[in-house]
Amino acid sequence: EEAPLKELYKDAFHIGAAVNPKTIESQRSLLAYHFNSLTAENEMKFSSVHPQQERYTFEDADVIASFAREKGMALRGHTLVWHNQTPDWLFENETGGQVERSVLLERLKAHIQTVVGRYKDVIYAWDVVNEVISDDADDENAFLRPSKWLDIAGEDFIAKAFEFAHEADPQALLFYNDYNESDPHKRERIYRLVRSLLDQGVPIHGVGLQAHWNLYDPSLDDMRAAIERYAQLGLQLQLTELDVSVFRSEDRRTDLVQPSQEMLELQAERYESIFRLLHEYKEHISAVTFWGAADDYTWLDNFPVRGRKNWPFLFDELHRPKEAYQRVARIAVPK
Ligand code: G3I
Predict the structure, then answer these.
(1) Of 144-153, 197-206, 226-235, 245-254, which gets the smallest average pLDDT?
(2) Are 149 and 157 in contact (CB under 8 A)?
(3) Strand spans (E) along the chain
(4) What do you get for the CA distance between the two ends of the chain, in Å?
(5) What ipTM was reported for this prediction?
(6) Is 155 a catalytic residue?
(7) DSSP 77
(8) Which residue among the candidates 131, 155, 163, 262 is catalytic per the annotation?
(9) Neighbouring residues of 295: CB distance < 8 A, sequence distance ≥ 6
(10) The whole model's pTM is what?
């Protein structure tokens, strides 16, 4: 049997996977064998745990927390503030109008205290704020993404979220998490945000690079430049949602029922280069989490086209190691 990834990389970083209650069942032995860290794919998001003001729903999140406790795996919390999967009630007052800033911040505080407090014993790191940086490539003054958070509370909902999370669990490592993190424009915006939080004395301990990549993009140079730049913040870095799609980002074809040999070869090379790069920066990188575990389930099966199968991981649909696994495993072994 193949060597566990978590063992091969134990001197470098944690090896994580995003899970949900279904994959905890269907991928149970694969998860326990190769991974030593987990993230809830959707189950700890605002809408999942707090759909109504007076009602918290922790059943699914608890399933994931219990699995992590049972197996002694590290658990990352995802996520406290986001523009998606956030319920409307949060931004509304009793008459259906927009809530006041102070009320929104009180609600945020109550939410964070309840959710972070509940999993204090098992969650060691939280993605406190997710994806607040603008993707706008045309406007060079663009900075924060437009959102209800920003509209109602102004920029400092970000700092407040970190402060509330720190109060709720002073031991947790607090992350800012984003995608397109290797894009040069976005990279500098993310850097600027985190730098300003640090300058204000906000409790923030890490930057999460989602790393939703594909066979061609981003370039290794851009990945390296991003890691170097974020490392200058003096914070720890984690890859939080790694996957390598076999399609180009503009490709919308839906006819493939299995990946071509060429795709699998390119993917293996790509993963090898990525892990070589990560290994070079292992002093800065504390965890590498895949956004799933094996090709039988990935969010990319429904993105950007609904029902289009993808094969982004190191393990195939039957949980067998792919060529990409072999390459990643081989380079982990010190010469
Ligand atoms: O729960 C419903 C279910 O009742 C319904 O039958 C089904 C059919 O449409 O939809 C289910 O909801 C879906 C949900 O995932 C749970 O599977 C939503 O439609 C779907 O939009 C949602 O997608 C999630 C997405 O975040 C939402 O933005 C993905 O699973 C999840 O992988 C993805 O994760 C995000 C990270 O949190 C942040 N970074 C990007 C990453 C990928 O988009």
Answers:
(1) 245-254
(2) yes
(3) 14-19, 37-40, 74-81, 123-130, 173-178, 206-209, 212-214, 236-245, 285-290
(4) 21
(5) 0.96
(6) no
(7) E
(8) 131
(9) 310, 311, 312, 313, 315, 316, 317, 322
(10) 0.98
